[in-house]
Amino acid sequence: DRTFSGLPIPANENTDARVILNLDIPIYTGGLTSSTVRQKVSELDQAKALLEQENRRTIGLIRSAYLSLEADIANVKARKQAVISTQTSLDATLAGYDAGTRTSVDVLLSQRQLYSSQRDYSEARYTYLTDSLVLKQVAGILTPSDVDAINQWLITRPAEESQTEQ
Questions:
Q1: Cβ pair 9, 1 in contact under 8 A
Q2: Which of 87, 127, 129, 133 lies 20 to 30 Å from 69 when distance is taken between CA atoms?
Q3: What is the pLDDT of residues 89-124, one digit of tens each?
């Protein structure tokens, strides 16, 4: 007989070996492990459902904001055309006043209609601007530079318009 190292086994030594292995493996833990797994799977499913719900809500908000913006564009165009039309009407009323066929009351009414249409046009542009910010916000692409650009436009635009009206 030989040992693992290849040396002969001495005759007076015991060749029996004992290994003691103590394992502590719970065979049944009262269903705690399987219950915990089921709970975590349920929590994962709930989180996935909440994520899907939030995605659908966000898509709905974006779609709604986009459609509002499209309507705003049409409204701004219509209001601008109304300003042009009422300006033309005022010019015709002034020409009629100069010719003696219109009264000063007619001129004042035409001016009031022009100012009303200019107000409506300004409100439509303001609504367009705010709705464009809302769309960018719900889409998650709103940046400080967007707000700065609108602020700059609001500062310079009224000054330009007041110069062209005079």
A1: yes
A2: 87
A3: 999 999 999 999 999 999 999 999 999 999 999 999
For residue 135, give every residue at least 6 positions away whose Cβ sits within 8 Å of its Cβ, in sequence order, or none.
62, 65, 66, 68, 69
Please give the pLDDT value at position 163: 56
Q: Other C-beta atoms within 10 Å of 72: how many? A: 19
- Residue given tokens 């330009």 in the structure block: 160
Please check whether residue 7 is in contact with residue 1, taking contact to mean a CB–CB distance below 8 angstroms.
Answer: no
pLDDT band at 34 (very low <50, low <70, confident <90, very high): confident
102 secondary structure, DSSP code = S
- Identity at 148, one-letter amino acid code: D
The neighbour count for residue 110, using CB atoms within 10 Å, is 22
User: Is the pTM above the cut of 0.70?
Assistant: no
What token pair was written down for 124? 């439509």
How far apart, in whole angstroms, are the C-alpha atoms of residue 148 and residue 143?
Answer: 9
The owner of tokens 């602020």 is 151
Q: Which helix (H) or strand (E) holds 142?
A: none
The CA distance from 33 to 58, in Å, is: 37
Residues in the chain: 166
CA distance 13 to 66: 92
